[in-house]
Amino acid sequence: MPATSRRPLSALVALGLAGLLALMVALSVGSVSMSLQELWAVLLGRGNALHDTLVFSLRAPRALSAFATGGLLALAGALMQVLLRNPLADPYVLGISGGAAVGALLAMLLGLGAVLVSGSAFAGALLSTVLVFGLAQGRGSWTPTRLLLTGVVIAAGWGAVITFMLTLSPTEKLPGMLYWLMGDLSYADSPQVAWLVLVPAVLLTLPLGRSLNVLARGPLQAAALGVAVKPLEWGVYGLASLLTAVAVTTAGSVGFVGLIVPHMLRLVLGNDQRIILPASVLAGGALLTFADTLARTLMAPEQLPVGVITALLGVPTFLFLLYRSR
User: Fold this and answer.
1) Span of 64-73, 179-188, 200-209, 285-294 with lowest mean pLDDT
2) How many separate domains does the chain show?
3) Residue 127 has pLDDT above 80, yes or no
4) CATH code at 89?
5) Which of 12, 91, 94, 124 could be stapled to 258 by a disulfide with Cβ–Cβ 3.0 to 4.6 Å?
6) What region, left, alpha or beta, does residue 20 occupy, with left being phi > 0 and alpha being psi -120 to 50 degrees?
């Protein structure tokens, strides 16, 4: 096998091992640490009652939610960067997270349960998606520039609404609302929905890798080469919006993952979407799982918002990669 063919495969294997390592560390580290042998015994059904409760009731749901959320955000970021033909595009730049935050904060103010908070966040994300796409469409077809500018304006509007809601919120509810806005996996105990969206999304995007490679060169070239540009663009936008909405409803507004991970991988692996899309899922999942483990252990028993950790890890890494790629 040629070296050029082995390199992407080796990268995917390495990222898969990093994701597995991140999950193992998340299951082992905490207020009660477990050795690898003790963790293996729990996974085989031979652990003691305390370790079983820690792994299956507390740590595993949170770790799986973190991995799925990171994968959702990174995949959405990779798709948005192809759609907008901008390597610095981010799934949050179109205001989707802002709409989700408004919906979730409104549910929190009304004292609704966790399930209704997630549902309200998802409804807000879908409303923001419809607004951005509808306004960007106008009387003609939307362009990447028009879509980006519309998203920035909508995001600014949602930001103003969030500030207004926080100003009027009762003092006792402010900490929880602020934690959610910064990204929080403390209550992410149901990873099933995120995984049920992530796995089909990966399977759906893999066959589209070649068409996305052509689309990244521009719509005219893609159309000349036989790609159905408009249906592909609509599908990519809708899928990226869905991925972002599910990620936000699972873990709140976690920034930087959708921006840093795909761009970092492009600097290392090139711009072949057949490699970048699955690599983004694995790298995003591993990154957010490691970040959440740090968030809950760095200042234990206090827990930090995971969005703070992703920013602290992502910003210097991103700047370093940009410096090396000059």
Assistant:
1) 179-188
2) 1
3) yes
4) 1.10.3470.10
5) 91
6) alpha
What span, in angstroms and rounded, lies between the C-alpha atoms of 262 and 284?
8
Q: What is the pTM of this model?
A: 0.86
DSSP label at 54? I
Q: pLDDT (tens digit, 9 = 90+) per residue, 179-215? A: 777 787 877 778 888 999 999 999 999 888 888 888 8
Residue 35 and residue 91: Cα distance in Å, rounded?
38
Q: How confident is the model at residue 174 (pLDDT cuts 50, 70, 90)?
A: confident
Q: Would you place residue 140 in the very low, low, confident or very high pLDDT band (cuts 50, 70, 90)?
A: low
- Buried (b) or exposed (e) across 134-162, using 16+ Cβ within 10 A? ebbeeeeebebeebbebbeebbebbeeeb
Of the chain, the end-to-end C-alpha distance in Å amounts to: 32
Alpha-carbon gap, residue 226 to 238, rounded angstroms: 22
Rounded to whole angstroms, the Cα distance separating 305 from 294 reads 10
Query: To the nearest 5 percent, what fractions of the chain are helix, strand and coil?
Result: 80, 0, 20
User: How far apart (Å, rounded) are the C-alpha atoms in residues 242 and 248?
Assistant: 10
Sign (positive or negative) of CA dihedral 116, 127, 307, 72:
positive
